[in-house]
Amino acid sequence: MNDRKQILLVDDSPNEIRVLMENLKADYAVLAATSGQAALDAVANSEPDLVLMDVTMSPMNGYEACRILQQDYPQVPVIFVSANTGTEEILKGFDAGGRDYVTKPIEPAVLMSKIKIVFEQMERKRQLKDEKQQVSELAMAAMSSAGDLSIVLNFLRQATKLANQAELAELLTSTVEQYGVSASAQIRDAKGGVLNRAGREGFAPLEEDILSSSINIDGRILEKGRRLIVVYESVSLLVKNMPVDKAERCGELRDYLMILAENAHDLNQKIWAEKTLAEQRMTFVVDAVKDANETLSSIQTFQKSYKEDSIRIMDDILAEVESNFFSMGLTEDQEKMITRLIQNKLNEGMQHMEEGLHVDEKLKHLTESLDELTKNL
Known about the structure:
Elements: E1 6-10, H1 14-24, E2 29-33, H2 36-46, E3 50-54, H3 62-72, E4 78-82, H4 87-95, E5 100-103, H5 108-159, H6 165-176, E6 183-188, E7 194-198, H7 207-213, E8 221-224, E9 227-232, E10 235-239, H8 247-323, H9 325-328, H10 332-376
Parallel strand pairs: 1-2, 1-3, 3-4, 4-5
Antiparallel strand pairs: 6-7, 6-10, 8-9, 9-10
Helix pairs in contact: 2-3, 5-6, 5-8, 6-8, 8-10
């Protein structure tokens, strides 16, 4: 394969073309044109790597041909060849779009040096263009990746506030659909409970069965055509329209879906642990309330029995004292005085017991409240 660079020689003098060709043919593939129009036609047909353009030609001179050429093929560099070395003439060449200027008679070493310099400049320009394109592509990819990552970060930010599996399933499917795909999810708990959630398109036939059976697949991912299933112990994610015609994008989405499913599993475990802890705390509270209720009921029963026994004892004391007055040899006034003293003390004791009734009422109200509370727990 001939990979030598191609140079087009343009001059209306066959002799000048022959001289140039002799100097260049060892290192380059050489074409020739004897007029400005012929040069334009040659560039259109073969698009050489460089044009050596004579200035003095008719009817179209080299400057005119260069201007037209640069309009359609700005990537093809032109070096002018002329016997006129005046500054004004050289400036006209640069104004027409030329890269350099070689004066006649041609010095082979100077010509080869100028050609080499132009080719090096064009190569640097091409490299810079490629680098610019790469930077642009990297920037676009970075922007795209930043947008994709922000979806994951928003999911994590919102998921930390979730209270139950239903909210988690809803957030997971809506987050996946931000990537432009349709998804369904299944969230499982430690007791065998299953919660299915479809995306905007709803469940297609058998999708719930697919999610339920996905726990039995080997590995984390199963791909079948445009469908993709990501499976963790407590979370299964089904995507129905993966962009399989875009391999790179498909790979990126696969990574993000794995991240989302893994974090959804971790969050589900956290929700379940907090739910279990809350249930344990509730059981403890219910048991404590029941124990307190039983204790208060016992106190209330004791209070009632104690009051009844106290009243009976006081009545027995008064009756026994009165029955022994005769054997004591007391006068009537003495008996009345003793009876009055005992009665006053008994009345004082009864007053204390009446005040205790208020405590009984409070205990009764408290036990009724605890009974109602245990019914609602």
